[in-house]
């Protein structure tokens, strides 16, 4: 799902060519409206398996940087750790290429038996926090935050979701991903994001991800500084 949040939906302008009104038939959230005091927020939701959400996120990032190399973008994305065709876990990668372990099936650490488990993966909260949390610090010159993703593994960090909320309360746009709900039920933190005023929910899948990329880029270019 992709979405945009704003602080004051009651005083938003009517949707127009520069407005951010989209109603897509996919689990994507896009902006509903804008105002001088509103905060645009974008969030993308898709499943880990097969949809290519991380590829989409990285392509959006690369396109934005090409369009304006002076843009200040902060954040991270998650990437699979694979060996011999087998998925061994996930790592978090900052936008400037630094990496840290998020979760793994086997971790050579005496502390690993204490770590939270999601499926067959043990979540290395300390490693995740060391890389992700500094990327979510509010800076005056930041133009866009990118978070892939706000999911169950990341939420084992007690500091992560408050950092996400701080971003939402800033005047800086956010492009983020969240997991598709299992059995129709969202993680409470994810539900809180999805229920934020001004959000429109749609779904990303293999058939629409390319067109969605163009939609997201177009919307972000409308609200980000020009080169």
TrEMBL record:
Domain of life: Eukaryota
Gene3D superfamilies xref list: P-loop containing nucleotide triphosphate hydrolases
Keyword NADP: no
Alphabetically ordered keywords of this record: ATP-binding, Hydrolase, Nucleotide-binding
GO molecular function: ATP binding; ribonucleoside triphosphate phosphatase activity
Sequence intervals crossing the membrane: none
SUPFAM superfamilies membership: P-loop containing nucleoside triphosphate hydrolases
Pfam family membership, one: NTPase_1
Name the record gives this protein: Nucleoside-triphosphatase, THEP1 type
Organism: Corchorus capsularis
